[in-house]
Amino acid sequence: MGNCVSGFKRQTSSTVGIKQREIFIAVVGVDDAGKTTVIKALNGDSLDGVLPTVGFNRFDLKFKKLKITVYDLGGDVRIRDIWSSYYAEIFGIIYVINAAEQRRMTENKTLLLNMIKDVNMQGKPILLLLNKQDKPGALDEVDAAEQLDLSNAVNRYKSPCRVETCSALKGTGKDCDPPMRHGFNWLLEQIENKYSEMEARVTAAVTELKARQAKERQERMARIRAKQEAEEAAEANAEQETSIDATSAALENGSAKHFRNRVLPFEPLPQIKEEGNNTSPYRDPFLSTSSAQLNGGRKNSRTSSSSLGVGQVPHLPPISPPQSLQRRLPSMNNLSVTASVVPISAHS
Ligand SMILES: Nc1nc2c(ncn2[C@@H]2O[C@H](COP(=O)(O)OP(=O)(O)O)[C@@H](O)[C@H]2O)c(=O)[nH]1
Ligand SMILES: [Mg+2]
């Protein structure tokens, strides 16, 4: 089976004499597989009242000279996406399957393959626990590996893998199911054997992940700031328009009040005022010519018109006939006209 090691193998002595090192491990699998129970059993905790995991649990284990942090990640469909965000910082993984629930093997196959081929997981050791062996119909290593197409996946991505059958409820601590304990020891040994290399890889991956997350955070903040600024500008515009509308309305109301019931004094236009000073090119034909004619062409005839205030009716002299007519009709000044009606029949 290449990288995939199956079956019982005692490896407890290999971790003896190792200096304390810090390692990170994740436990994943679908909901109800027994993940939390497995970790509690390995850690020697009570197995009573294990509740479904909401989000994730963190366990700090001290095992020989190792300081182990275990992330127990929830298996619910809604939170499986968080698994991959832990791949960068972990050194190895425990995948737990409820071996008695065969109808979910296809789902497990997909999840397992996605995990193995993740760039941050390739080459990292995997412990596959086929849990709930106490239940009828539980799959053994051979059948499970076949259904999961495990050999292909682990060989392709060069991930060391060990499969163990177990029952997490069997006991806790020293009394926990031996295959489970042995499988866990195998995982620690794999990590220990390549610790320096793995630590460098994890450090680099975590640094890169943090840089990417910081960049994404900055971009997100920039987007939020730009959105806020756009909203503030829109609000300011709206306020300005409201203020202009209010001012216009106030002016309209004010003007209406101002002009209501008031008779304003007449104010001539500036150019008409100028006409009085004889500086405007505009000439009122009536005032400049008619009055002169009416005054008999006398000099200073315009004086009377130009001294008139605009809007005043000029005081016209009495009409006298033109001199030519006066010569022909010398008595015209005293002319009196008598009209008489002659019947039409008298002409004819
Ligand atoms: N019969 C049996 N039940 C188990 C075993 N391991 C866990 N359980 C039970 O399965 C249920 C789910 O366990 P839990 O650890 O919460 O699963 P998780 O959702 O994967 O964390 C609990 O009721 C456990 O008591 C086992 O080996 N055999
Ligand atoms: Mg759980």
Which SSEs are present, and which pair or pack?
Elements: E1 4-6, E2 21-28, H1 35-43, E3 56-63, E4 66-73, E5 92-98, H2 105-117, E6 126-131, H3 141-148, H4 150-156, E7 161-165, H5 178-193, H6 195-259, H7 270-276, H8 285-294, H9 301-306, H10 323-328, H11 344-347
Parallel strand pairs: 1-7, 2-4, 2-5, 5-6, 6-7
Antiparallel strand pairs: 3-4
The site of guanosine-5'-diphosphate (GDP) has 19 residues, from α1.
Describe this structure in words.
It is built from eleven helices and seven strands. It has 348 residues and is α/β, with parallel strands linked by helices. The protein has three domains: 4-193, Rossmann fold (3-Layer(aba) Sandwich), CATH 3.40.50; 195-229; 271-307, no CATH class. It has a seven-stranded mixed sheet with strand order 1-7-6-5-2-4-3, sandwiched between helices. The protein is elongated, with a radius of gyration of 55 Å. It starts with a strand and ends with a helix. Magnesium ion (MG) binds next to helix 1. Guanosine-5'-diphosphate binds next to helix 1.
